[in-house]
Design goal:
Helices cover 43% and strands 6% of the residues. By secondary structure, the protein is mainly α. It has a two-stranded antiparallel ribbon. The structure holds zinc ion (2 copies).
C-alpha cells in the first residue's frame, strides 16, 4: 500500500522528489532552476528587442549613445548634444556634406543614403565630439571616408 505522497515521487517534469530536490515549500528545485533559466532567456530576447525598437524610434539618441562610448574610448573632448542634429539638417538642407545627395532618415542603417553623423576629423585622429567637428553625411560616404579627415577625403574624391 503506497503511502500518501509517494504517488508523486516524481514531479511533473520527471525530477525525483527526494528531500534534497525540494525547497521548504515542497516545490521542485530543478524545476525552479529550469524556469528561471528560461525566464532569463525569454527576457534577454525581449530586452534586446526593446532596445532595438528604442534605437529605431530614437535614432539621434541612439547615435549619441554609440558616440559616448567612442568618446570614452578615444578620450576626446565632447560638447555635442543630439538636438544639434536638427540644425545640421537645416543647414545642409537634408543633403550629404560630401556628395550632396538627399539623405534618408528612416531606413535601414546600411542603406547608402542613410543619414549619419560624421566627424570631420575622426576620433581616431584626435577630433572632438563637438558641434564644430560634426556634419551629417550619407552612410555611403561615411563608409568610403573611414578614418580620413574631411580634407583628405574631399581631396581624394575630387
Ligand atoms: Zn521538477
Ligand atoms: Zn554622401
Amino acid at each position: 500500500m503506497p503511502r500518501k505522497g509517494q504517488r508523486n515521487s516524481r514531479c511533473i517534469r520527471g525530477h525525483a522528489r527526494t528531500p534534497n530536490n525540494l525547497d521548504k515549500y515542497e516545490k521542485c528545485i530543478p524545476c525552479r532552476r529550469q524556469y528561471l533559466r528560461q525566464y532569463h532567456v525569454d527576457n534577454r530576447d525581449k530586452k534586446i528587442e526593446n532596445t532595438r525598437q528604442w534605437r529605431l524610434s530614437n535614432p539621434e539618441k541612439s547615435r549619441e549613445l554609440n558616440n559616448r562610448v567612442r568618446v570614452l574610448k578615444y578620450g576626446v573632448e565632447s560638447n555635442f548634444r543630439p538636438w544639434m542634429e536638427s540644425y545640421f539638417r537645416t543647414r545642409q538642407q537634408g543633403r550629404c556634406f560630401y556628395c550632396g545627395k538627399m539623405m534618408v532618415r528612416n531606413c535601414s542603417r546600411y542603406s547608402p543614403r542613410k543619414e549619419n553623423l560624421e566627424h570631420l576629423i575622426p576620433f581616431s585622429r584626435g577630433g572632438a565630439h563637438s558641434w564644430d567637428n560634426t556634419v551629417l553625411a550619407c552612410f555611403g560616404c561615411n563608409m568610403k571616408k573611414r578614418n580620413k579627415t574631411a580634407e583628405e577625403f574631399i581631396q581624394e574624391t575630387r
